[in-house]
Every structure is written in structure tokens, then in C-alpha cells.
Amino acid sequence: MKFAVLGLGKIGHNTAALLAARGYEVTGYTRDPSRAEDVNRFGITVTGALNGNFRVRATTSLAEAVEGARFLVVTTTAQGHKPLARGLRGLLEPGQRVLILTGNWGAYEFYTVLGQEAREKGVIIGETSGNLAVSPVLHRPATTVMGHPKKRMGVATIPRGAAPGMVRELRRAFPEFIPEPSVLDTSLNNTNPPVHVPFCIFNITRMANGEDADFYGQCLPPLLLDFATAADAERCQVSRAVGVRPRTILELMNEVWQVQYDNLKELALENPSLQHVKLPKTPCHRFLTEDVPYGYGAVSRLGKMYGVATPRIDLLVEAYRYLICQGAQVGGPEFSLPLEELP
Length: 343
Known about the structure:
Blueprint: E1 2-6, H1 10-21, E2 25-29, H2 33-42, E3 44-48, E4 52-54, E5 57-59, H3 62-66, E6 71-74, H4 81-87, E7 97-100, H5 106-121, E8 124-128, E9 138-139, E10 143-146, E11 153-158, H6 163-169, E12 177-179, H7 183-188, H8 192-201, H9 204-209, H10 222-242, H11 249-257, H12 264-269, H13 286-289, H14 292-306, H15 311-325
Parallel strand pairs: 1-2, 1-6, 2-5, 3-10, 6-7, 7-8, 11-12
Antiparallel strand pairs: 3-4, 8-11, 9-10
Helix pairs in contact: 4-5, 8-10, 10-14, 14-15
């Protein structure tokens, strides 16, 4: 079974290496010719939870990458989902599967672009509820660090009944995957926004100053942890109103790591993959530019649509809009997601 990894950033490098380590043929796609050259010349070198040098073919041709691949694994940021989906028009082959890591409404966006073609060709579009492994750094040439992969990761699909079959087909490639009822579950129960958004917004000065700070250490005093927990409760209320079984961020983190803590900070500080996570040294980081417009921004909009008050989440979204966007529409015009069209 051949995989195409679409996007060769930190997550893409680690995903391609992990699949190669598990015995699969992998082609990586990147728009950056120098990055493709590095991968083809040197392979991908990984340290951390996975160690070794892995041969992966890289290309700057999207058509070449997807040709003959059973699975198209999307590892771009959320801002890249719609442009990549548009680039795939006419390239999908019958029976292919698209898998977006991490979802953040990625499956829904892909479906809004490729829905008709996907139906005609029997293509299944899926997404995960988070990233499989923390990827803190990427160096040239094609050298990265991988945290320990999560032990459980939810997967949902469009059409919604296809998730169990996709998970079965991926059992050897990704034994961590479990099926979820719908892409509403994977996007609303994504583990990233409830953590990244409040922690970053309330540490924005540190980020702007480029300070070296532990994400779950000094950046997370009890006062902020209480606020983040209360904001997460609002997300759960919105999820319930939309028809999704809500799970708190603590429940989700315990589930993906297969541990049992009653405090999010203790869970993070005692987790080998999380205890060394650093606060980003710039405000223009995907912890905000992705997880606000495609995470808490979407929750805020759904709260208004379904009559659920989300005052803390609204505060975080507006702070992002004024601090980061400043009229530049970093997350796209009005955050771009056509949530009003949700089925």
C-alpha cells in the first residue's frame, strides 16, 4: 500500500518517516524545491521516539505524488487545506482515501471543494482529532525530532459510516487510530485549541519578546489553568448543542496518552513528549494562526448559531483578532469556514 504525504513540514517529515519505518512506500509532496532536494538526497533523519534515516521520495508535483497512492495523508496547516483541496481537483483516483492530520474541519473543507468528484470516484475523506506526535523542531537537511506518538487518536470520515473501515485498513500503518462517529466529533474534540489558544493569548508578551519558556511550566499558573478549564467547559456546551458527545480537554488528553490524571498540568509535566514543549517565540505561530480561526473561532461562531454563551472563548477570539490580525486577516476573511453550510 502506497502513501502520499502532502506537506513536508515537521509533521510531514515525521509522518513520512514513521510510515517508512513501518514498511510502507512513501512519496512526499512539498512546494519547496530545496526541501524536496534535501529529502531525496539525504533521506529523512529522525531522533527521539523514532531513530534512524528513512528513504522517502519527494516531489514538487502534486500529480506525481498522488498517482497510484492508496492514502493521501495531508499534513499541511489548516490554512493550507482548501488550497491543497483545490490543487487535487481532477487528480483523485477511484477508491483513494484522503486523511487529514490534524482535522480542524479539514475533512469538511476538503468535501466542500471535492465533494462531487469524491462521490463519483468513491473517495473517502477523513480527518484525525489531533496530531499523532509532537514535532518540536526541523533542521536542514531533513532532520527532525519526534515525540512519543499518542496511544489513541480518533478518526472520522465523510461519508460518516466509512470510519471503521478506514481504521481497519490502516491498522498496521497507524494502530493508534480509533473510529469516531462524525467529523463534528473530531473537529470539536480536537485537543489543540483548548490548550494552545488560552495559554498563548495570556503569554503573548513572552511570545512577542521571543522568550525561552516552558509551555506547561511557568506559562501555566493556576489562575490561567482555571480560566482554560472554564473556556473548555464552554466548548463542551457548544459540542453538546451541535449533537456531539463532549469530552473535556483533561478527558481527551488522558485518553490519547492512555493515562489517568486529575490535573492537566501534572499530566503534561510528567509526559515525556510534553514536558519539554516550549512556548512559541513568535505570535505568528500555528498555535494561534491555526487554532483560533479553525478551533476556538469556529466554536464561538457555532455557539452564536446554537444559542450557547461562550464569553471566555469569545474573549480569546477577539484578543487574537486585535492582537494578531490587526486588519491583516491572518486566519482568512471571517475565518473562512462555511459553518452555516454544515449538514
